[in-house]
Design brief:
With about 300 residues, this protein is of the alpha+beta class. It has helices at about 5-10, 25-30, 30-35, 150-155, 180, 245-250, 280-285, and strands at about 45, 55, 60-65, 75, 80-85, 95-100, 110-120, 130, 135-145, 160-170, 195, 215-220, 230-235, 240, 275-280. Strands 2, 3, 4, 5, 6, 7, 9, 10, 11, 12, 13, 14 and 15 form a 13-stranded mixed beta sheet that branches. A two-stranded parallel ribbon has the order 1-8. Strand 6 and strand 7 form a beta hairpin. The longest helix is centred in the last third of the chain and has 8 residues, at about 245-250. The chain starts with a helix and ends in a 16-residue tail after the last helix. The relative contact order is 0.23.
């Protein structure tokens, strides 16, 4: 199977056969078809700074995030979200990847795709909640361990995926960095429509100004099959988006009659999981004698 075939098969987030819906009724029965959706490490969750463990974690290194991705990007409306996939069929350029933070030493995670979750109203849309704030939209940049050739294979291996979560906050002025994607949303209004991005874009342009502070926890995919193989890295600083720009997402459809919105999963029980936060301040560094925290034996659960 060549890389183009693999990318085509990954244009949906779900990677499952059959339909799943986002209504409360639908979500309550996900686990009947997909056993992992009833697991103990499910996402999304509510994150509170006061209950997170602040440690001087290593930085998250994002390699290739400032490189322009031209003639490699494709948008598709898959009925659950709008997905931006990276087609590296020529293999002439290395895909962007991440390492560091709490990730295993000497392991790299290549970008696979990104997608969005948004609400029909401004008071909802994001999947995670941070300090009791639910933002109107959240973007997920999905990476897989380079040891696995495709996303389907990675789902069967523990800690095989890293997902960067980015919140979007409303402002009056348009965020021009988002325009390469927003300009093409009209071409993917209907289910299964897809188009190429003609304008070069960098992944870094979609990230918040501050990527030094982030929360980390162990969780799952937020759509079926809900595989519990994800290390979540949630940035605390949101990205700006205007009301007019967000409206363009709300004009997308998941069928002939219905608008595509409120495509977020209900909050899941955090259980005994720990949440770590990388917070660079004098207190944290004094507590750990100015040394970078050793993540090798990091404990992810309360006992």
């Amino acid at each position: 199977m060549n890389i183009i075939t693999i990318i085509s098969s990954l244009m949906t987030i779900s990677l499952v056969e059959g339909h799943f819906g986002y209504s409360r009724k639908d979500q309550h029965v996900w686990f009947k078809k997909f056993k992992s959706c009833g697991g103990q490490l499910q996402s999304p969750i509510s994150i509170l700074s006061s209950r997170s463990l602040a440690v001087p974690l290593p930085a998250l290194e994002m390699i290739g995030y400032h490189d322009y991705l031209q003639d490699m990007l494709q948008l598709k409306n898959n009925g659950h979200s709008v997905v931006m996939s990276i087609n590296n069929g020529t293999r002439s350029k290395r895909l962007p990847y991440v390492f560091g933070a709490t990730l295993p030493e000497n392991e790299e995670f290549k970008v696979d795709h990104l997608h969005f979750h948004w609400g029909a109203k401004n008071n909802r849309g994001s999947e995670h909640i941070l300090n009791d704030i639910r933002y109107p939209m959240e973007m997920h940049i999905v990476h897989r361990n380079k040891a696995y050739s495709n996303l389907s294979d990675a789902l069967y291996h523990k800690d095989s995926l890293v997902v960067l979560g980015v919140f979007f906050q409303l402002q009056d002025k348009d965020n021009m960095l988002l325009q390469p994607i927003l300009n093409l949303l009209g071409k993917v209004k209907w289910l299964n429509e897809e188009t190429k991005l003609g304008t070069p874009i960098t992944l870094a342009s979609l990230l918040p100004d501050n990527t030094d502070e982030f929360y980390v926890y162990k969780g799952s995919l937020t759509t079926p099959p809900c595989s519990e193989v994800v290390t979540w890295i949630i940035f605390s600083t949101p990205v700006a988006i205007s009301f007019n720009q967000l409206t363009k997402f709300r004009l997308l459809s998941d069928s002939v009659e219905r608008k595509l919105a409120d495509n977020y999963r209900m909050l899941q029980d955090i259980g005994l999981r720990k949440i770590y936060v990388r917070r660079l301040n004098s207190y944290t560094f004094t507590k750990y004698n100015g040394t970078t925290f050793n993540v090798t034996n990091l404990d992810w659960f309360w006992h």
